[in-house]
Amino acid sequence: MLELQNVCFKKDNKLILNNINIKFDETRFYVITGPNGSGKSTLAKIIMGLEKPTSGKIIFNGKDITDMPVDKRSKEGISFAFQQPVRFKGITVYDLLKISTGKDLCKKEACGILSKVGLCALEYVDREINASLSGGELKRIEIASVIARNPKVAIFDEPEAGIDLWSFKNLIQVFKELESNYSGITIVISHQERILNIADQIILMKDGKVSKVGKKEEMINEILNGSSCCKGVNDCE
Amino acid sequence: MVQVAVRGLMIVNEIDKNLLDEIDVSDFKESEAYNIRKNGKSIKRKINDYVDIEPKEDGKGINVYVKENTYFGIVHIPVILTQSGLKDVVYNDFYVGKNANVIILAGCGIHNDEHEDSEHDGIHRFFIEEGAKVKYTEKHYGNGRGTGKRILNPVTEINLKKNASMTMDSVQIKGVSKTKRVTKAKIYEGATLVVKEKILTSDNQVAKTDFVIDLKGDGASCNVTSRSVATENSYQEFKSVVTGKAKSYAHVSCDAIIKDDAKVKAIPEIYAKDADANLVHEAVIGKIAGEQLMKLMSLGLSEKEAEDVIIKGFLK
User: Fold this and answer.
1) DSSP code per residue over B267-307
2) Which residue in A86, A91, A145 is closest to B291 by CB distance?
3) pLDDT value at residue B11
4) Which architecture characterizes domain A2-224 according to CATH?
5) Region B304-315: what's the mean pLDDT?
């Protein structure tokens, strides 16, 4: 289980996350949604350790990981797909998947992982992760790099951002399969109705606070009708 | 000293073999021509029906002749320096006949365990006839425990006739105290030059590269890519002057990663002397991007491991 206790995050004197308290249970598929600037991506980065909370605690399977650096969290089983996948000169998809799995993967195994994200593996496995790949291709490789680790917590920061409709349709399929087959905690930051529809639980954020948490069935109409809102009280101030 | 067999020839010891393996291979195939130069002298040479190698009259180098229409020739011309305090200057000329296709592997390895400087200056001139294709690889490497500097100053002059092409891969990854590399090319109608240069410097090393390229005919083109990593207190300088005198194309890219107290300077110059010349120069110098480190660390690598992976990939 992953738990955030009273997590606050300030940057440039601005309160980005305001007293966040959430418990993530295993085998659940969570979607964190909310308007732009509500703190969703920051929350995801805080869990991965890419940002450090100003106050509060992060507890993972009973261990306080608040001060644990990114690489150690990764070794504990937390993994993160970046909203804007990083490009590398000279590093191939195969290289990245070998790093992800932490073993000397054979090409057949690498191709198997790429197939899971809908990429025709042989065409991609030896390609460099550089500007020659499209946004959709990079996204899928990014997702593959997370799936390859078989993490206990898989975080995906706006997987739909920057990709075309056709690629998005395929991505939904990837997440549906994750939801059905994956036993860890999945956290997806998303605005998309079709991703919200896959969720077990939806976490709605507004002004740096958790506005509402509930089952998809309870939340989705409210969110889509735009009636959900929170006041944004500065509890950490 | 223990002698090591190379294809049955007792010609090199363990230090020589290590240097040869770093810059090329110490084990040439039967069908390949070669000339091994050690401490200022040719110590072994082999020619075949397609490749002739002759020493110059003054003994300061060789002429390599690749016959017309050679289908797939391979020539090795490694140089090794193990004598501290030696300054070796060599002039090698390559004459590649019409429509020949050849791979030339050059390189210099210096082992210096003493306090005196060792230096090798290789001046290579290429005369590449119509339609010929040359792949030229040079690798520079230095090792040894001495305080004497390991200095390499290669000069490469390239003449590419109509529709000829040359690919030049140049690598200097380790142990060279000081280098100035000069590459000059004249590229005629329809001919193409592709240069890929990779350099890594550390300690107080200095590496300067200088390209002077003239695109002299319609359809002439060149593509120069320099990737370098400067670490610790080292200094690198990249200079290129490309002149387009016809309907020609050039793309020059200098991409450097800088670390620690290193310094990197890029001086690009492109000069179009024809309205149809299309010349591009890109120069990027910067630290390893933070998000690249973060991505690899999010996959379980430490910061140091992530940095090594990024640099290794960059210079691959």
Assistant:
1) EEEEEE-STT-EEEEEEEEEPPPHHHHHHHHTTT--HHHHH
2) A86
3) 54
4) 3-Layer(aba) Sandwich (3.40)
5) 94
